[in-house]
Each structure stands twice: as structure tokens, then as C-alpha cells.
Amino acid sequence: MSTTDIYETLGIKPIINAGGHMTILGGSVLSPEVREAMESANTAYTRMDDVFDGAGKAIADMLGTEGGLVTSGCYAALVQGAAGILAGNDPERIRQLPDTTGMRDEFLIQKPTRYRYDRSVTVPGGKLVEVGDKDSCTPQQLRDAIGPQTAGILYFAAGERFPNTVSLPDAIEIAHAAGLPVLVDAAAEIYPLERMRRVATSGADLVCFGGKYLGSGNSTGILCGNGEYVSKARLNGFTGFETGNNSIGRGYKVDRQEVIGTTIALRHWLNTDHEQRLQLQSERIAQIADGLAGIPDVSARNMWEQDGEGPWMRLDVSWDEKTKGRTAAEVSEALQNGSPAIFCRSETGSLHLAVHTLGEGETEIVLRRLREELA
What we know:
Layout: H1 3-9, E1 15-17, H2 32-41, H3 48-63, E2 67-71, H4 74-87, H5 91-96, E3 106-110, E4 127-131, H6 139-145, E5 150-156, H7 168-177, E6 182-185, H8 193-200, E7 206-210, E8 221-225, H9 227-235, H10 238-245, H11 256-271, H12 274-292, E9 298-302, H13 304-307, E10 314-319, H14 321-324, H15 328-337, E11 341-343, E12 345-347, E13 350-354, H16 362-374
Helix pairs in contact: 2-11, 3-11, 4-9, 12-16
């Protein structure tokens, strides 16, 4: 049965994904290598702790870290990482979370780098403490913010590109000088590969990646870093609960197929010909941009130069909304409500299209629908 058929039997409308690896669209399409690995893992039972041991060692070896752990998403990696920092390997404290009475429970975060997912550390009972103001944070401010209740520093890796903020190496140096760990959200910091490995081996105690960006399941993530802290995070996971410690991570369960699939997805990503991968994206963007070239008042450009060294190329399609008489939001909605349905991101005066999540033949469909809506 085809993908379209299985959706239609359940009354579900398939979508052409020009939005990228978005959680609300199901994350990613599993590569043949990942599917094969998951199907193989599905043929036999084994102890989950053994699966975590084997996969964790493989992940650590590939990334150059002491420890590795597959989690049920990057958010879960942050939750378990924070829990490991708060409770350590103390069984009583693990059971006590999210009640942090008697524990250091504050995580420092630079105010200019606040982001939606930083609330993850509050799930096991952590409290976020902003440092600096909305425009800047200095090393001295971060240093001065450390107090008797500080448990660690939460670092948003993508925020390292923000001006007037503390770099990851400086944050690690400040934290370690005070005997504190650093927890890094590096969800999509997977390319260039040098960037991924540099963050993983930065000296941060725990680093979290999103599995969907690597071609693994939407519900997977990777936690890596200091072996002791990875072990503490693992104690706060679902296998820890099953062995009697009532850990807060019982709800963050992954199956053996996902653990194996994520490990193979990482291997495949690290061995991929990324120049060829980006060349295909460039060709798809050029095809759409060239097809829109004759439409009055509409411009299209590859956002690669603006995005810099990110993992994926995107196409910006923009126009003057007053001149055109249609807003980007209206065009985006029309694309989603059309047949076939097409999802892309929008902001005032422009659509942002990701092409790496388009399937065979879908580039032409996206171009045709754009021409219909914008001509």
C-alpha cells in the first residue's frame, strides 16, 4: 500500500513539505539505511540497557565524546540532562524530582539568547535565571550571576551567533572554574560536520542534538558529552524508572528500533557526501526561482548566503504585498488548502521554502502552484 493510500484510508490529507524538518509535519523521511536498521532491530528482543550501552558507545566514538545516549527527542535530552545535573545519581533525589528542595536548582541563561525550548530545564524542577539584558550579556555578568543555588548553565548553541553574547568556550570556562556543568541545546547544529563535532567536543558536559535533522525519527534525539553526566542523565530515563528509582523520565521512552535507527542515522550523516546533497538543493532552488522569474513584482533568491553555514538551503520568494494585493500569509494559506496541499513558512512579504524535504517530482508541483497563486 502506498503512503498516499494509507493516509487516505484513515481520512488524512498528505502534504508536500516545503517547510523543512518540522515537528508538526512529522520531522523527517527515514533514509533506506535507517529503515533497514530499524526493521532488523525489530526482528529480535534484547535488554534495553544493552541497547543503550552498545548504541551509546558507538555514538560517543563517532562524535569523539565520552558518552552517548539516544533519547525521545532533543527536548527529552534537555530534560534528562537537567535532571541528571539536579539529582545526580542519588536515588532519593531522583525520586524527589521535580521537587528540588535541598538541591541547587538554578540554570543561568543569557537573556539575549532566551528561546522557546529553554523551559525544558524547568520540567524536572530547574529554575531559569536570566543574565544580562535583552541586547547583551558579558562574561563578567555571567560570572557574577553564579550563586549558591546555581546548578549549571544552559547554553543555546544557535545563540552563539548572536552579537554581544558569551561564546560557548567562554561559558564553559566560567562554569568549570566555579565547578558547574554546562548543558548545551545544539538541536540543529549538525553542519558543517566540523561545527557538529566542535560543539560535541567543546568540553560542555552535556550536548543535545535532534535526531530528525539527521534523518532519524521525529521522536528521537542524542545526548552526548561527559561520560559521568551522560550516565546521570540515563538514570533519570525510563530504564531507570523500571529498575526502581521512579525517575521523572519514565514518559520519555524510546524503543529499540529507534535507538538503533538513530545510531545508524548519525553514521550515515557523518559519511554523507554533503557537497552533493547541497548541490541537489541548489538545483531545486534554481528551478523554482527561474520558473518565477517572469512574474511581475516577484523576486526569488537563495538564502544560503544569509543563512551562512547551516545544514539546508532555503528559497525566499518575496513581493510588495500592497502592490500585489495578496499577503504572504494568504498565499501560504492558499497553498495549504490547495490540492495537493503544500506547506511552507511565511513572514510579511515573503515565503520561505525548504527544498530538502521535497520528494521526487514535488519541486515541479511547488513551482506550478506558486505560479498559479502569484501570477
